[in-house]
Amino acid sequence: MAFPSLLLLLLLSAAFLIAGGSTTLRLDIHHRFSATVRQWVESRSGTELGWPEKGTVEYFASLAAHDRALRGRALSNAPPPLTFSEGNATIRINSLGFLHYAMVSVGTPSVTFLVALDTGSDLFWVPCDCLSCAPSASINYRPDFEFSMYSPNMSLTSQRVPCNSNLCELQRECSGAANLCPYKVAYVSADTSSSGTLVEDVLYLMTEDARSEVVEAKIIFGCGQVQTGSFLDVAAPNGLFGLGMEKVSVPSILASAGLTSDSFSICFGRDGVGRISFGDRGSSDQNETPFSVNKVHPTYNISVIGMSVGNTTTKADFSALVDTGTSFTYFADPAYGQLSQTFHAQVQDKRYAPDPRIPFEYCYYMSSNSTVAPDVSLTTSGGDQFPVNDPIIVISIQQNEFVYCFAVVKSNKLNIIGQNFLTGLRIVFDRERLILGWKHFNCYDSDDSSPLPVGTRNSSRPPGTFGQGSYTPEATKEPGQRYTNHSVDAPG
């Protein structure tokens, strides 16, 4: 079956939702290895690309390598919710470094960008008046579509952000008569960075209600004149959309302007397609836990107080970053050892010898006699259970030979709940109440449950079964740095 163009697909897949009288804005999400994105990427060259086949050793090794590259060595009375005017589809792209992307339009006349989504950074930036950017001519995906460039001089609604703006974090680096606010986003690994000046312009959004009205939101973003490292080709060649907690992020700006509630949700489907909704505060039947917020360096961290594998429950005491930008889940000892060894003790299948190509330590031969993998869940602060829908990943070793692996990678330092633990859930980042919410959800269905803030929560979850999840990347800001991201430890 022939796939439609990406832009048409995104427009057709835009969904609108009315929940308790409030409106949300959302985008569909596609994984970087999805068939839709593969077709779109291959259309630029007219030839098939040598992508790893889903479920193979090479497939999972590629995702783990991606995590290491980005993480480096450290591993109501709400306004109408909104989604991007190009549709709420998010997609995943194999040949690029981030896992999930969305189409956004800014400026007058509007210019459309394919931006990487990242809950671990804050600033939204696009290539602009480029001195060093990914060459658009070399990354055209279709004859009628190419990666865009932005220029403040070409937009009738663009304004430069002055150094005295309260969103200018690098005021001390201002220089010259132009009085333009500079920015810099830097990743530790591979000398990857984006720098330029801040601008204000229109971001086009769409209400998620029956009227589907266009909203022209004035937002601050980066005019990215200089990109280095993987931003030139594999990470975010057409820009990055930060979803973090800082006041310069788009969710923060939308909330401060009264356009949405200070909350958004992301839903990851099992086929690599997902959706993001700005202003979505979740529903009364969701589970939730408070964020553990560091005021100096706020991120989406939660506290884990227990871990369950099958009928065995152990106490725990660690903080984990909920990271939509990381492919896999990473735990450091003692949490990693407790969880993985408890899982291993309940598996009856023969263990597969450690393979340096596979990022997971505990893998087992799969046969017709294989037992069902034990259920896995995390007990969060407040007592709600965070379910792991797919605690295992099935990998094709060779023709007709498969192993299944416990889908957690050992980290040197940081604990990260990555996208493989988030798949099949609608994850709500409620920054107003400072809680993380979740519930089992079909990413393509409208939510007919009651909106927050009242109601009971359901902690039921399905039993663990063999299956394949889908995955994603992210970054966190170094304490004391401004608009600067660093990578987290992802050894393996």
UniProtKB/TrEMBL annotation:
<protein>
    <submittedName>
        <fullName>Aspartic peptidase A1 family protein</fullName>
        <ecNumber>3.4.23.12</ecNumber>
    </submittedName>
</protein>
<keyword id="KW-0378">Hydrolase</keyword>
